[in-house]
Amino acid sequence: MTYRHTKVFIALFLLFIGAFLLGLAFGGSNLSLSSVVTAIFQPERDSIASTIVRQLRVPRFFLGVLVGAGLSVAGCVFQGLLRNPLAEPYTLGISGGAALGATLAIVFGLPGLFGRITLPLAAFLGAFLSLSLTYVVAARRRFSIPTLILGGVILSFLFSALVLLILSVADADKVHGTIIWLMGDLSATETGMARVAAFPIVGGIVITILLAQQLNILTLGEEKAAYLGLNTESLRKIFFLAASLITGACVAVSGLIGFVGLIVPHFLRRLVGPNHRTLIPASALGGAIFLPLCDTIARTIIAPLELPVGVITGIAGGLVFISFILKTRSWEIF
Amino acid sequence: MGEGQGGGEKMDNSRPLPLPLIPSRQGRGSFRTETNSDASPLLKVTDLVAGYQDQKIIDGISFSVPNGCFLGIIGPNGSGKTTLFRVITGFLNPWEGEVLYQGKNTSRITAADLAKEIAVMPQGLESTFSFTVEELVAMGRFPHLGRLQKLGKRDREVIHQVLELTDTEDFKDKKLFELSGGERQRVFLAQALAQEPKLLLLDEPTAHLDIGHQIRILDVIKRLNRTGGMTVIVVLHDLNLASLYCDQLILLKDGSIFAEGSPSEVMTYKIIEAVYETVVLVNENPITKRPHVLLVSEEQP
Amino acid sequence: MHWLFILNGKIVSLRRFYNVVLSCAVLLAVSPAVARGDGLPQRIVSLSPSITEALFQLGLESKVVGVTTFCLYPPRAAQKPKIGTIIKPNVERIVFLQPDIVLATETNPRPDLDKLSSLGIRVLILPPEKSFADICRNLGLLGKALGVEKTAESVIKKANERIAAIKARLKEARPVRVFWEVGASPLVTVGKGTFADELLSMAGGINIAHNAPARYVRYSREEVLRQDPEAIILVTMGDVTAREVASWQKYKELKAVKDNRIYVIEAHPVCSPTPLTFVRGLEKVASFLHPACVRPVAKVF
Asked: Is pTM beyond 0.90 here?
C-alpha cells in the first residue's frame, strides 16, 4: 500500500459517505430534506418519512452497495482470470442462465408457489445451472482459458435463445415482468433476501482478496504461474466458482445490472494499478459507490417514473470511460 | 571469459552476491562420468519420450546435470528443444521415462516445493495488465512466502538485489509496457532469480534481442553460475552464444540427442553440417578459445 | 371465500379452476385484511388502468389517491397523482401517499407488491382476466373489498342486460369470419382464452385465429391471406394504423378488401376493459360486423 493508494482509498471512503447521504436525501417521492433529517434523528415524529427513509431508502442503498461491490469484484476477478480486460461478470453465461431461470418462474407463474423467494431462487438456480455446464465443459480441457470463454459465451447464447423462445410464446403481461427483471432493479427486494445473498457475496469477495497474489501470478499465463508453484487448474476453478457465486447471488437479488462489473474494475485499475491485492478491495469500494449513486439518479431523474438502473450505469459509466480512454496513452488502458 | 564482459553494464562487482544461497560449487566437471561420480547429479533424465496428442516429439533422451553445471540445449527448429524443456520443468508429462531432481521423481514433488528450488523462464513471457517492474519481480518471491503472502525484510532484500543484479532497479516503478524488449526480458530474469533457485531453466532467453542485450542477460546468469554455484540449463538457438557460455552442450536432432559434450566436442563442422544441413566453418574465438561457427551462403556474395 | 370456486354458477374447466385456486391463494396470502373485512379503505392506489376506470364507475373517484401514468380513462383519472407505470410502480411514491389499499394485477411486478405488503400496506392482487366473466368477477372483488358491492352488482347486471340485448338482435345473423389485429410488426392477433376472442364471438364474428396455440400470438400474413377473412379489425396502434390499413388494401383479392370491410377500433374498450367498456366495445364491433342488426354507435365512450 503506497502513499498514492492510501490517498485513493481515503477519497473512495469519502465518496462512499457522500453517496450514502445522497441516497438518503433523494428518492422517488418529493420528501423534503427536513423530513429526511427528522426521519433519521426522530423517527417517531414523522412515521411516513421514517418508513420511507429507514425501510425503503436505507435498504435500497445497502442492496446497491452489496450488488455493486459484488459485481465489481466478480468483473475484476474474471478480467484477471481470463487475462482479458473485456471480461465482465456475465461473460461466462451466468446472466443467460439466471435470465432463463427467472423467465421460467415468471412465465409459468411460479411466484405463487414459493412466495417471495421464488424469483431469486429460480434466477440463482438458473445461474447455477449455467455455471455447472460451463464448469463441466471447461473441466474437460483443464480449465484452459479459451475453453472457459468459448464454453461460457456459447452457453450464454444458448440460454438467451431459450429465453427469447419462451418470451415469444408467452403471454404479453408475463413478458413485461420478465423484461423488467432483465433490466435489473434494486427497488423492491426484501431485506431478508439481501441478507441471505450477502453471505456468498461477502464470502466470495473475502476469498478472492485472500488469493489476490495468486490471481496476479495467474495473469502471467498458465505456464509461468505453474513454474511459480501454483496449482493453476485448481486455482482457476476456485476463482471461477467464487466469481460465479458472487455474480449468481447479485443477479438473484437484483436482476441483470450491466456495465458495473466491466467499468468499475477498469476505472480503479487506472487509479491503483493492476495488483489485485489493492485492486479487489478498491473495486469493491468503487462498486459500492457507483451502483447506489446510479440508482439514486435513476429513481429521481424523471420521478415518479423510475429508469432501470442499468440505463444510468451504462450512460454514466460509458461516458466516464470514453473520456478516460481519450485522455490516456494506449498502453495504459489496462 | 572475464566478469567485465558486460561492457556498459553498471554492475557492482564488490557487492557479495546473494544468489543462490547454496555454499559451494561441486560436481562441476566431466559431464559423462555420472556413473562413477560420488555426488549424485542435481537433475537426471532417463529415457524420456514425450509429445503432444498423438505426435511424438522427443524419443529416448537421457542425460544428467551435475551441480553447478551450465548446460546448453541446442538444435534446429522442431528438433524438440522446447518440448524437452517443458518435460524437464514438469509442465508437460512424459509418456515414458522420468525426470529426477536430487534423486526424486519431479512428478512426485508438488509445484510449490519445486518452485522453491527451480526457477523457470519460459519463452514469450508477457503481462496482460500493466504491473510495475517491482510488482512483477516480487511475484518471484511467491514460492517462499507464508500463508498471508506478506513480503518480509529478507524478501525485500532479495528483490532489491535481483533488481540491481539485472540492472532493472532504475525502472522498478515503470510498467512493463513502457520498457524495450531487452529490458522486459531482464525483468523476467529478475523475477526468476527472486526465487533464489538452485537450478535455473531458461528457454531462449535471448530470442529477438540485440547482441548487447543477449550478452547482458547471459552474463548475469553466467556470473551467478560461476560465483554462486547456481546450476543452469538453457535452450539456445544461437550456436555461438551457446559455445560462449555453456560448459556442456546437448545437440538435439529429430527428438534425440545427436551429440553431447563440451562445446569443442559438439561444435565441429561435421556435426553442425550434419544436423543443420548447411555449410559452415568452425573457427576458434581468439579470446575465449571456444569454437565459433561462421555461416557460408551457397549463393555468390 | 368459497364463492370464488364457482364462476357464473358453474364450475369451469380444470385449467381455469387451477387459476382460480391460484388467485384465491394469492388473495389469502397477500391480503388477509380483506378476508377479515376491516374498516373500508379511504385512500386507494390503483396500479392498473382498468382498475382505475372501474373505481370511477363504482363512484370511488374521491378515494383514489394515486394512479399509474397509463391510467387515461376516464379523462379525470389522468389528473390524479402518478405513482409510476404499470410495470414499474414507484414504491416510495406509493408509501408517501399513505394508501389504505393498493389494487394490483398480476402484470405489476411481484417484488414491488411484496415490498408494499411487507411495509404493512394492504395489497389486493386481482386475478387475470381472460373472459367477460373474469372481468365481472374482478369488479365484484373490487366491490367487496371496497364496500360497494351493491354498485358493482348493478353495474354487472346492466352490462349483462346490454349483452343479452345484442345477442337477441344477432340471433339470426350469419357469423362473419374476422381477423383481429392487435399488432402490426410483428403481426399479432389473439387466440381463445382472451376476452377479445370472446367479444368477437358475442358480436357475431368468428375469430380466424381462435385455435392459435397461445392467447396473444404472432401470426403470419400468409395465413391470413389463406384464410381470407370477411373482415379485418385493427385495434388502433397510433400512427401505424393508416399505413397498416393501406398495407392490407394491397391484397385486392382479399374478401375483406373487396367488400371494403377493414375496421379500426380504439384499443381502450377492448384491451383493458371493465364490464361497461367491454359492452361498449362489443356494441361497436357488432355494428361493424352486422350493421343491419345493430345500430352503429357514433362514439364508443
From this structure: no
